[in-house]
Write a structure and sequence with these properties.
single chain; about 300 residues; alpha/beta; Rossmann fold; 2 domains; three-stranded parallel beta sheet; 13 strands; globular; binds aspartic acid
Length: about 300
């Protein structure tokens, strides 16, 4: 008899969704990553009838996300997805680096089942916390037949891992899809699909097996008025392996910054050009430094780290 794949596994990593404040009216002076994932589920009675399992993979404020946690998380997700009875995985996460984790998992796992990241902008103790609704929506999405790929569910909207960005520092609907193309909406527990489920080619866990402390060091620099390239020379002197330049507009760079980046490239540092604009790709032009396409600077950094991990 075939096992029904209706079990949803919730992996907790911390964040504001698991945060607590001394008073209910305090929306900023709280501590993230205080409650366990079982506590978050207990706050959503509407999930009582579902087959759920919970596992605490990490407990941190996602501003402190690190490579070792990414390794552990990717391994945990893969292990759960390999169980035939698991229909999907939900990850509770902080909002600050959620888009980086989503893109990392997308590139490493490109899962054939749904892996849904969710979060909250208000702590669990807020007068009107957003976490319980987001968690409910994420479970609905993870249990949707035919859904697949790394997805981000927040404030009723479903984003893919490539487009999603935290676009507001405070609002409950803080996330946007950079090109405006939502994958779906979750409305009263029902998933209304708007676009294709994301596909990709999985790099696999072997790509990220190297000890976290030995991962390539890739830093981000910004073009701005007066950018003179000194920061790039300092980074090269410090031994970086790669630099992502968040250029202006179509990835443009001041003459001095471009000169320093070309020196870095000649010294063996990998350079990738992104844009500091909130949306839109960098369109490559002949003779220019390599472009990161539609990836934001933080995701271009993840892409460069993953590329460098394939090299000795
Ligand atoms: N600093 C928190 C975190 O990223 C913010 C949040 O979750 O909204 O963990």
């Amino acid at each position: 008899m075939q096992t029904p794949a209706d079990l949803i596994v919730i992996l907790g990593t911390g964040g504001t969704i698991a945060g607590t404040a001394p008073t209910a009216s305090d929306g900023v002076g709280y501590a993230a990553a205080q409650l366990r994932v079982e506590d978050l589920l207990a706050a959503v009675p509407a999930l009582a009838g579902r087959r759920l399992e919970a596992q605490q993979v990490a407990q941190l404020d996602s501003k402190d996300m690190d490579f070792a946690t990414w390794q552990r998380l990717a391994g945990a997700v893969q292990a759960q997805l390999a169980r035939p009875e698991v229909g999907g995985v939900v990850i509770t996460h902080g909002t600050d680096t959620l888009e980086e984790t989503a893109y990392f998992l997308h590139r490493v796992l490109a899962p054939a089942k749904p892996v849904v990241l969710t979060a909250a902008m208000r702590p669990a103790t807020a007068l009107a916390p957003d976490g319980p609704q987001n968690l409910f929506d994420a479970v609905q999405l993870a249990g949707t037949p035919g859904a697949r790929g790394v997805l981000v569910a927040l404030a009723g909207r479903v984003h893919d891992a490539v487009q999603v960005r935290k676009a507001h520092s405070y609002r409950v609907d803080a996330f946007e899809s950079a090109d405006g193309a939502l994958v779906a909406r979750v409305e009263e527990g029902a998933v209304r699909r708007l676009g294709a489920w994301p596909d990709g080619e999985a790099l696999g866990l072997a790509r990220i097996a190297r000890a976290a402390a030995a991962w390539p060091r890739v830093e981000i620099v910004l073009n701005h008025a007066g950018a003179d390239g000194r920061v790039v020379r300092a980074l090269v002197a410090a031994g970086v392996d790669g630099i992502v330049a968040a250029g202006t507009g179509n990835g443009t760079l001041s003459q001095a910054l471009e000169g320093a980046l070309r020196e870095a490239q000649a010294a063996g540092v990998r350079v990738l050009r992104s844009t500091r604009c909130d949306a839109g790709p960098v369109i490559p032009l002949p003779g220019q430094l390599p472009a990161a396409g539609a990836l934001s600077a933080v995701k271009a950094r993840v892409a460069l780290i993953l590329a460098l991990l394939a090299e000795a």
